[in-house]
Amino acid sequence: MLSLTPMEQSALMLSLNASAQAVLWSLPLAVGLGWLLGVRRFPGHALLNALVHLPLVLPPVVLGYLLLVLLGRNGVIGGPLYEMFGLRIAFSGEAVVIACAVVGFPLMVRAIRQSAEAIDPRYARAARSLGASELRIFVTVTLPLMAPGILTGITLAFARAVGEFGATITLAGNIPGRTQTLPLALFTVTQSPGGEAEAMRLCLLSLALAGAALLASESIARRMTETRAPA
Amino acid sequence: MIEIHLRHRQGSFRLDVDLALPAQGIIGLIGRSGSGKSTLFSCLAGHIRPTRGCISLCGRPLYHSEERINVPPARRGIGVVFQDGALFPHMSVARNLAYGANNVGTAFWHEVIEALDLAHLLGARPARLSGGERQRAAIARALMAEPALLLLDEPVSALDPGLKARTLDLIAKVQARTQVPMIFISHAPEEVRRLCDQVVTLQGGRIHSVASSEWRAARPFAAVASVGGLRCAT
Question: Which fold has domain A6-224?
Answer without folding.
Answer: MetI-like fold (1.10.3720)
